[in-house]
């Protein structure tokens, strides 16, 4: 797949999203060359626009999009280490990040999981089971301007970040579900449902 198609005018649709079973989703992505090239920046901007369109009722209906909060490069067929996320914070304000060569440099001991399991734009079937994630992560990456950034995420945003970095490492979310007992949680770990956090 040519990287050049993801230019400023390109609208990513569900036809561009690589589905499970495609080998690119099991590929460990390559570090992005720095300084950031215009084609890589354009690809990230296309990916971000997809997330925004997917959460916009009018645009998602027009382009028949499934709503998404995160998208990794290999989900659109690119074997580069970069992803985007677009989520709302507790107050409903948009939080957006386009991150290049992300690396988790530290994380909490405590863990959380989404009680309804995780979803994925590359997976067209329901998958039951708990996906254990660190409650807080600290990340080092480069932003769209090529500047190195250190970011901290917790709760839902931390889950999204870990889900996308897993993609970049060729890992699917359901790989982290206990294969024998999907709703069994890891032992000896402080882990709870994300929604028990509210009010803390």
TrEMBL record:
Q: Which residues bind Fe cation?
A: 120, 163, 167
Matching entries from Pfam families are given as: Pep_deformylase (PF01327)
Free-text cofactor note:
Binds 1 Fe(2+) ion.
Instruction: Tell me which CDD domains the record gives.
Output: Pep_deformylase
Broadest EC class assigned to this enzyme: hydrolase
**What InterPro entries has UniProt attached to this entry?**
Peptide_deformylase, Peptide_deformylase_sf
For this UniProt record, the keywords arranged alphabetically read as follows: Hydrolase, Iron, Metal-binding, Protein biosynthesis
Recorded catalytic activity of this chain's protein = N-terminal N-formyl-L-methionyl-[peptide] + H2O = N-terminal L-methionyl-[peptide] + formate
Q: Which cofactor does it need?
A: Fe(2+)
**MF-aspect GO terms:** metal ion binding; peptide deformylase activity
A GO biological process of this protein is: translation
This entry's Enzyme Commission designation comes to: 3.5.1.88
Catalytic residues identified in the record: 164
What are the boundaries of the signal sequence? none
UniProt cross-references to HAMAP family, sorted A to Z: Pep_deformylase
User: What family does this belong to?
Assistant: Belongs to the polypeptide deformylase family.
Per its database record, what is this protein's job?
Removes the formyl group from the N-terminal Met of newly synthesized proteins. Requires at least a dipeptide for an efficient rate of reaction. N-terminal L-methionine is a prerequisite for activity but the enzyme has broad specificity at other positions.
UniProt name for this protein? Peptide deformylase
Please report the organism this UniProt entry assigns to the protein. Paenibacillus albidus
Q: Which gene encodes it?
A: def
């Amino acid at each position: 797949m040519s990287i050049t198609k993801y230019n400023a005018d390109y609208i990513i649709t569900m036809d561009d999203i690589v589905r499970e079973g495609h080998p690119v989703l099991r590929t460990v992505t390559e570090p992005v060359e720095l300084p950031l090239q215009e084609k890589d920046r354009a690809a990230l901007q296309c990916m971000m626009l997809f997330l925004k369109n997917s959460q916009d009722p009018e645009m998602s209906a027009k382009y028949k999009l499934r709503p998404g909060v995160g998208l990794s490069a290999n989900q659109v067929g690119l074997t580069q280490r970069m992803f985007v996320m677009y989520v709302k914070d507790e107050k409903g304000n948009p939080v957006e990040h386009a991150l290049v060569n992300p690396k988790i440099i530290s994380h909490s001991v405590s863990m959380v999981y989404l009680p309804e399991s995780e979803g994925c734009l590359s997976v067209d079937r329901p998958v039951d089971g708990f996906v254990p994630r660190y409650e807080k992560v600290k990340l080092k990456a480069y932003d769209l301007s090529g500047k190195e950034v250190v970011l901290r995420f917790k709760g839902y945003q931390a889950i999204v970040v870990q889900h996308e970095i897993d993609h970049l490492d060729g890992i699917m979310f359901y790989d982290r579900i206990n294969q024998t007992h999907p709703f069994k949680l890891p032992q000896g770990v402080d882990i709870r449902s994300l929604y028990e956090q509210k009010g803390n």
